[in-house]
Amino acid sequence: MLHGRGKGDRTGTGVLSVFGAQARYSLRGQFVWILSERYIVMFSCVSQGSTNAKELSAKGVKIWEANGSRQFLDNLGFTDREEGDLGPVYGFQWRHYGAEYTDMHAGTLCQSLIFLGGRCTILFIPALSIK
């Protein structure tokens, strides 16, 4: 934090930027560094794997509420989706990569298998198994 280029931001507090800096952390023991509130919401959503806005909201992940509203879904042409159905958002994509999305109630345990090069593999990312 001693080196970098200072610049203004929308809040007026300013930002110190360092281009291309990398931070590396060991993920052994399933420990993940969370450096920002924004990432906490992201990891919460991914770790839950849910596509139900009401379920996520009840668990404190409120960022998706507007995207599951009846008006929002209808405006995008998703008139067949139940209110609260977010579609294949981050949680679904990270936990069920390559699976076909049907709806927020469909069980995707069997679809969590990934077919790569004719072989069936289970995708497991320990660092994202946050509870």
UniProtKB/TrEMBL annotation:
Gene3D superfamilies referenced in this protein's UniProt entry, alphabetically: Thymidylate synthase/dCMP hydroxymethylase domain
GO MF, one example: thymidylate synthase activity
Thymidylate synthase/dCMP hydroxymethylase domain mapped to chain residues: 3-100
Keywords: Methyltransferase, Transferase
GO cellular component term of the entry, any: cytosol
Biological processes annotated in GO: dTMP biosynthetic process; dTTP biosynthetic process; methylation
InterPro entries for this protein: Thymidate_synth/dCMP_Mease (IPR045097), Thymidate_synth/dCMP_Mease_dom (IPR023451), Thymidate_synth/dCMP_Mease_sf (IPR036926)
Keyword Electron transport annotated: no
Protein name: Thymidylate synthase
The organism of origin for this protein: Scophthalmus maximus
